[in-house]
Design brief:
205 residues, 28% helix, globular, 4 helices, six-stranded antiparallel β-barrel, disordered C terminus, alpha+beta
Length: 205
């Protein structure tokens, strides 16, 4: 049974260059936890634990049943708060892990029930969602997470220069494992949804 690997089948969405570029992200199926709090804080970490517990249990269950064989994908996060107006402790976010479309709502529900009964883990916050990001611009950020603001500014300039308006939440895909990677070498794909600007003209003109 072939292993499904989104980093290969959707390479344009899970790899990026150091230079900003446009991509189109079609609809996909994700495990998601939506909450608020400081990125990297306790609530954030609990959400990651729940997400990956469900994802890996689904993976092993599907493989054992002979229905699917997939590689657990990279952690992603959507940020809905304006950093300039909202205290970091109140940031609203949605953590995501992409899963095959074939994984049904009932499969996720059964997995959460099993985790609660066998391991005492409450994964009730984990939902199966469908989401389409659409037209976007992205770039590879290399360095500490605290410096990612400059990368968003770079994407904003790229969008404006190409007659595009930024829309939707800020999107980060964490390529590196921060437990094993020095801060200056961390790789994060930074993405922003865009649409054609008014009149198709660059806002800087």
């Amino acid at each position: 049974m072939e292993t499904m690997d989104f980093s290969k089948s959707l390479k344009e969405l899970y790899s990026a260059k150091r230079k900003a570029a446009e991509v189109t992200a079609g609809p996909g199926t994700f495990l998601a936890v939506e909450s608020r709090g400081r990125p990297g804080g306790e609530e954030f970490q609990r959400a990651i634990e729940a997400l990956y517990s469900v994802a890996y249990t689904l993976k092993f269950t599907c493989k054992a049943e002979g229905t699917l064989n997939f590689k657990v994908n990279k952690l992603e996060c959507l940020y809905f708060s304006d950093p300039g107006k909202t205290a970091m402790d109140d940031w609203q976010w949605r953590l995501l892990v992409r899963i095959p479309d074939e994984v049904a709502v009932k499969d996720v529900a059964a997995t959460k029930k099993s985790l609660r009964q066998k391991k005492g883990l409450d994964a009730s916050a984990v939902k199966r969602i469908r989401w389409k990001e659409g037209r976007s611009v992205q770039v590879m950020h290399v360095g500490p997470y605290d410096d990612v603001g400059k990368t968003y500014e770079e994407l904003g300039r790229y969008a404006a220069q190409n007659g595009l308006d930024v829309q939707g939440p800020a999107h980060e895909i964490y390529i590196s494992d921060p437990r094993r990677t020095a801060p200056e070498k961390l790789k994060t794909i930074v993405r922003l949804g865009v649409k054609k600007g008014s009149g198709g003209r660059c806002r800087c003109c």
